[in-house]
Amino acid sequence: MQKQKDPPTTSSSNFSFQKKVWTTAAIFAFLIIMLLLINATFNVLLLILAGSLIAVFFRALSSIIQRKTKWKEGICVAISIISTLLIVAALFWLIGAKVQVQIIELMDTLPKTIDKAKAWVNESSMGQKIYDQIFSEKSIDKAQLFLPGFFQSTFGVLGDVYVVLFIGIFFTISPQTYTKGFVQIIPLQGQQKAQQVLDTLGEQLRKWLKGKLFSMLVVFILTAIGLAIIGMPLWLVLALLAGLISFIPNFGPLLALIPAVLVALMQSPQTALLVAGLYILIQFIESNFITTVIQKKLINMPPALILIAQLFMGALTGAWGLVLATPVMLIIIVLVQELYIKNRNKDPEPSPAKE
C-alpha cells in the first residue's frame, strides 16, 4: 500500500511572499531616498548644468579656431578660454566706468520714478484700485515670503559664479574624462547607447546655445539703437540689461521692460509709451523671426512646455531654475526621444493571428 504524500507546507510560499514584500519596500525606500537626494542637491545639479553650457561654448569656439588654423586641440582650447575671459574683462574695463555711472544714476532715478508713477496711477480710480491691490499688506507679505527663497543662491552669488566658471573650464579641458567615466558606470550592453545619447545632447545644447547667444546680441543691438534714437538716458545699461535678460525666455523681456519704462516715465508718459512699444516690437521680431529660424535647427520645444517648466523650476529652485529651465527641458526631450520613442518605433509590429 502506497504512502500518502504529505500536503505541501506553506512555509516556502510565506517566504516567497515576505521576500516580495521586502523587495518592494526596498525599492520604495530607494526611490524616496533618491527623490530626497535630488531635491536637496538640485541647485547643485543646476550649477553643474550651467558649467556644462560654458564648456559647450568654449569647446565650440575652440573647434572653430582649430578648423581655421589647423592648430592642436589643446592650443585652441586654451585660446578659446583665455581670449573669452580677456574679451569679457576688456569690455567691462572699456564700458565699465560709463555703465557704473549709469547704474548709479538708475539707482538714484528709480525711487523718484516710482513716486512719479504712483502719483500718475492715482489720478484714476482704476489705477488706484490696481495700486492698492498690488501694494496691499497681504501682497507685500506674500512677496516677502517668496522673494528671499527665489533669489537665494547655493554658495552666494560670487560663489555660484566661481563654481560655474571653474566647472566649465574643467569640463572644457578634458570632456572625455567625464563622459567616459559616466559611460563606464552604465551596464556594458547599454554603453554604446549612452555614448550616443551624450553626443546627441552635446550637439543639441551647442546648437541651442549658439542660437541663444545670437538672439541676445540682436536684442542688445536693436534695443541700444532704438533707445538712442528715442533719446533715452541710461540707454547703454538698459540695452545691456535687455540683451542679457533675453537669455530667459518669456519672463526676460518683461523683466527688462520694467526699469526701462520707469526711467522713461521721468521724461514723460509719451516717452514711456514709446519705450514700451520699442520693447514689444523687438520682442515680436525676436520671437517670430530669430527664434523661428533657430528652432528649425533644433528639436521641437513647444513654448507652453517651456513656460510650464519655468513656473515649476522657478517655484522650486528659484532664479537658477528660471534661467536654466529651457536647457533642462531640452535635455528631458532628448532623453525621452532617444531612450523611449526611438526604441518604441523600432519594436516589431505583432503578426496577425493565424486562423
Automatic annotation (TrEMBL):
The chain crosses the membrane at residues 21-38, 44-62, 74-95, 150-173, 213-238, 244-265, 272-294, 306-336. It is found in: Membrane. Pfam families: AI-2E_transport. Keywords: Membrane, Transmembrane, Transmembrane helix. InterPro entries: AI-2E-like (IPR002549). GO terms for cellular component: membrane. Its main location: membrane. It is a multi-pass membrane protein. GO terms for biological process: transmembrane transport. Belongs to the autoinducer-2 exporter (AI-2E) (TC 2.A.86) family. This is AI-2E family transporter. It comes from Confluentibacter flavum.
